[in-house]
Amino acid sequence: QKEVEQDPGPLSVPEGAIVSLNCTYSNSAFQYFMWYRQYSRKGPELLMYTYSSGNKEDGRFTAQVDKSSKYISLFIRDSQPSDSATYLCAFYSGAGSYQLTFGKGTKLSVIP
Amino acid sequence: NAGVTQTPKFQVLKTGQSMTLQCAQDMNHNSMYWYRQDPGMGLRLIYYSASEGTTDKGEVPNGYNVSRLNKREFSLRLESAAPSQTSVYFCASRGISGANVLTFGAGSRLTVL
To answer: Cα separation of B111 and B17, whole Å?
Structure first.
């Protein structure tokens, strides 16, 4: 079983749609759950992070963590063409570790 | 602007040539990282430096060496480049926080012929 699984897409949606991006993981030690956004030919940038289970909202973005199911999601409301990018989930187990574990990324296109 | 700066942005090498990728951060971060990103493979950690004076291997260290020159700078060296090292390389740094949030550079595109 892979440590992190993320559907690579590509995912194409019309402008204004609600987008749902997901990752599953197998490592119970993960405590921090992150989403990075990467525009074409750019470096990844942190979009959101959450600690433990629950939801976190930031504008049009909502990150959701279900530790019991080992499943995380990123929802984008009222999607815009500027949201077109690759979205990577990332996981971190906490103190004593210096490494993140990344998903392979989902490529999203929002069509005007 | 504050952030992580990588040089060069693009490089073409012949098999067997050597080169060094440079990375500098001006955020006073302790930890620095080198990743490679390949289609279908995602981001893979090559080496990291938890603090000045220390370096550790990541997932794919073979064929690479690193130097943590000071707190700001972390370089990645290819001693004898191979076509399998054609990739996009990202440097990242991390400050003191619980979440291990990384700040990435813009990337260096390397082609080995």
So the answer is: 12
The nearest CA of chain B is from the CA of A60 a distance in Å of: 21
3-class state of residue B83 by DSSP: helix
Q: Which residue in chain B is spatially nearest to A97 when comparing CA positions?
A: B100
Q: Cα–Cα distance between B25 and B22 in angstroms, integer?
A: 10
CA-wise closest residue to B67 among B53, B87, B81, B82: B53
Q: Which residue of B has its CA nearest to A87?
A: B42
Q: Which of A37, A91, A100 to mutate to test the interface with B (most CBs of B within 10 A)?
A: A100
Residue A40: phi, psi to the nearest 5?
Answer: -55, 130
Q: What is the pLDDT along chain B (113 residues), one digit of tens a residue?
A: 679 999 999 999 999 999 999 999 999 999 999 999 998 888 999 999 998 989 999 999 999 999 998 999 999 999 999 999 999 999 999 977 666 789 999 999 999 99
Question: DSSP letter at B50?
Answer: S
Identify the residue among A41, A98, A107 best suited for mutation to test binding to B, counting B beta carbons within 10 A and taking the highest.
Answer: A98
